């Protein structure tokens, strides 16, 4: 069974279509609505979810793009999912503008074929993304609805190696138990609570610097088309009906992003696709999705002397890999302020 955490801040009608597409009895679901989205959105979604079993609403708090509040919401969601049911094996996080490319039967079969694997993008931050090191080398604060750079420099955690990727993941229950409850994860929570864009680095860093969590597949199982947009280095393009064939053929499990105010036909096409044999039955023979078909095994050894080497299954990707670029507004200076507008640009 699968546990889903859904982070929502707008578009209730689109959320309902997403939820219907991923709902399956036995799965568990926790939904968090950004407190700043207003009571009307919360009430509408709560009413919609009432008939469904295995679904809970998480206490709404502000979820500020760039802030640790996004990590906090996800940790609270993970912890609640662990309490709700003891049988689920994998955790998946989604936004309200994602959509599945495969049915729940297919997804369950996929994870059964890849037991113990963590699907999360993880790169050595200092080596592969040195342009982002200011996110952790200086202290940042969430204050009055915005991110503030204090200008205070700080060293990184002694003996640990920072990693970075995207906020999207499909990870095992055992990892969720560790990151939520193990004392070994506390130092990471303390440090990253004062960092910038922690949701793209916190979980990767915990995974690669703590106990052995198994093979980490350098893949988040999402089909995303990253495109440049003005001052934003990269943003996810909204898919439309012209992308259907590519989406239909993808071996990824999910895609993002979709905007029902921009185009709705693509969602209707995908809803029909989910009923097709190709989307219902996983026919793999041990292979992972398209981003890892040409996978090479990389041995990444942590700087921590007591840590064993960790294996990441890398990939030659056929889709744009977000970690190789900034995926939001460029923040080259260590001192700046970021308002809520950034969240709307980057979600």
From TrEMBL:
GO terms for molecular function: metal ion binding; protein xylosyltransferase activity. It is a single-pass type II membrane protein. Residues 304-323 are annotated as: Disordered. GO terms for cellular component: membrane. This is Peptide O-xylosyltransferase. One of its GO terms (biological process) is heparan sulfate proteoglycan biosynthetic process. Keywords: Disulfide bond, Endoplasmic reticulum, Glycoprotein, Glycosyltransferase, Golgi apparatus, Membrane, Metal-binding, Signal-anchor, Transferase, Transmembrane, Transmembrane helix. Signal peptide: none annotated. It is found in: Endoplasmic reticulum membrane; Golgi apparatus membrane. It holds the Pfam family Branch. Its main location: endoplasmic reticulum.
């Amino acid at each position: 069974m699968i546990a889903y955490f859904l982070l929502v801040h707008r578009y209730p009608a689109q959320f309902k279509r997403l939820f219907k597409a991923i709902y399956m009895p036995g799965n568990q679901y926790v939904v968090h609505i950004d407190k700043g989205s207003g009571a009307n959105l919360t009430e509408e979604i709560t009413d919609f979810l009432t008939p469904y079993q295995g679904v809970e609403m998480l206490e709404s708090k502000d979820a500020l793009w760039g802030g640790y509040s996004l990590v906090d919401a996800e940790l609270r969601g993970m912890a609640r999912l662990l309490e709700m049911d003891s049988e689920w094996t994998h955790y998946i996080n989604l936004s309200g503008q994602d959509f599945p490319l495969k049915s729940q039967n297919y997804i369950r079969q996929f994870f059964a074929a890849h037991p113990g694997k963590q699907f999360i993008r993880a790169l050595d931050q200092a080596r592969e993304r040195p342009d982002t090191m200011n996110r952790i080398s200086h202290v940042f604060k969430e204050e009055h609805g915005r991110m503030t750079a204090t200008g205070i420099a700080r060293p990184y955690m002694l003996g640990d190696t920072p990693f970075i990727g995207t906020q999207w993941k499909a990870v095992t229950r055992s990892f969720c138990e560790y990151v939520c409850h193990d004392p070994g994860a506390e130092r990471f929570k303390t440090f990253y609570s004062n960092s910038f864009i922690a949701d793209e680095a916190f979980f990767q860093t915990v995974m690669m610097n703590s106990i052995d969590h198994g093979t980490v597949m350098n893949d988040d199982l999402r089909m995303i088309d990253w495109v440049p947009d003005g001052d934003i280095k990269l943003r996810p393009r909204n898919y439309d009906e012209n992308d259907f064939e590519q989406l239909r053929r993808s071996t990824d499990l999910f895609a993002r992003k979709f905007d029902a105010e921009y185009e709705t036909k693509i969602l209707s096409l995908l809803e029909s696709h989910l009923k097709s044999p190709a989307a219902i039955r996983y026919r793999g023979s041990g292979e992972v999705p398209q981003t890892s078909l040409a996978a090479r095994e990389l041995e990444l050894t942590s700087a921590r002397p007591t840590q064993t080497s960790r294996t990441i299954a890398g990939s030659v990707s056929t889709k744009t890999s977000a970690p190789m670029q900034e995926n939001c507004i460029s923040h080259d200076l260590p001192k700046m302020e970021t308002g809520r507008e950034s969240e709307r640009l980057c979600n």
